[in-house]
Amino acid sequence: MLTTHRIIASLLLAIPLVATPITASAAEVTGKIQSIIHSSKVIQYLNPKTKEVQVLKYTDDTKLLEASSFEDLTVNTKFKAVVNKDNVATQIKRVLVKLPPEKVIDTDTLADLMDEGKPVFIGDARPLSVYNAGHLPTAKATPSNQLKDNLDWLPNDKDMLLVFYCGGVTCPLSPAALKIANAAGYTNVKAYVDGFPAWKADVYPAHVNPEWMEKNLDIHHVILDVRENPTSSVKGAVHVPVSQLVTMHDQWNAEKFAVGKRMVMGLRDKKAPVIIVANMDDSDEAIEAFEILTFWKYKNAVILKGGMQEWTLAKHPVQDDGFPTELVYEKKMAPGAVEESVFVTAAKQGNATIIDVRNPDEVATGHIKGSINIPLSELDKQLAKVPKDGLVILHCEAGARAALGYTLLSKKGYTNVKYLNDSFKGVVADNDIEL
């Protein structure tokens, strides 16, 4: 069932603002947001022309076009910006997908069609690697850059409703797929422009296919069997019955415990790929576990398509001699990330320069002795404090700001910089680091 507890949100378009003419001291940049830190007002983006990762800043006075607030600037948002000589955006415009209203379908309408079992073909126009990591239930992989040469992916019935989606309101892939299907003679094609981000934001379930999962039974993926009394499960799964999740959730709600600090089996990484296993993908256990983990801010929680029934019938690897009692998980190392052990040694022995890019009020709650505080928003103005010799490790609260700082310093020519891509307080607590 897709009809579950929904987070109701309304998207309001900003009143268009008059664009400021580009002067000799300003330049226009175009990009796709890779990460954004609203507290520091810093954006890391990919330049589509140069294929380089770059950074810009914005202020409260930055004019917004096609957006109601800075919160509309999210990962994967495509934008155009006017920046001054200090690389500060004076204007940012989201590059929205433009389609006739009759060609667009919204989240609830699509969910209702699926709930009612109406015939609809759902095509995921994103790259295959992105589809594999999580997609809408029943969706088929139809990457738009390959669809024209693979029309056999589509149903034979040219009058059947086809719905393509991708990464959100600035993603051009679903309109591209729509155009290809129309040219091929399909008469009832729509784009779900809000896309996968809106689907997840409304807490509708996402699935992964068992064939993909079998190839990823490793320490970089978390598999949770949420059934009450399973006798066997997916190989490598740990058992966390949904009743236990509900009890924890209710208790933490009563205690008003911060959502961002809620963890399942001590899993700090809220971006970890978490796959939920139940008897069927639409069972109450699967849906309830998905909703709770999503509420706890696990961004990549998904449900195993077909559940344990399909997994067993297809003879995928199983374990029937007991479940692991502890979660074994390792985050894949991102470029520039430092190993936890190296950070811990630096914090305890002082054999590297640690730069804390959090804001002063955060630092006041506890910091590593000898670390240097340079807020991310000030980092490019205080380069003199960053040594060019010896290892330099940046950290923040959860890793995002430190990653941006790493990119900024790398662009400035620093080759001795790493960053902690983890929860600072979690690493401190787990390794008895004194603050």
UniProtKB/TrEMBL annotation:
Task: Please list the coiled coil stretches.
Answer: none
The cross-references to SUPFAM superfamilies, in alphabetical order and at most eight, read: Rhodanese/Cell cycle control phosphatase
Q: What keywords is this UniProt entry annotated with? A: Signal
All copies of the Rhodanese domain together span 116-208, 221-320, 348-432
The signal sequence is 1-26
Matches recorded under Pfam families:
Rhodanese
Tell me which PROSITE patterns the record gives.
RHODANESE_3
Per the record, the domain of life is Bacteria
Q: What InterPro entries does its record include?
A: GlpE_sulfurtransferase (IPR050229), Rhodanese-like_dom (IPR001763), Rhodanese-like_dom_sf (IPR036873)
Check the record and name the PANTHER family matching this protein.
FAD-DEPENDENT OXIDOREDUCTASE, OXIDOREDUCTASE
Q: What is this protein called?
A: Rhodanese-like domain-containing protein
Species the sequence originates in: Vibrio comitans NBRC 102076
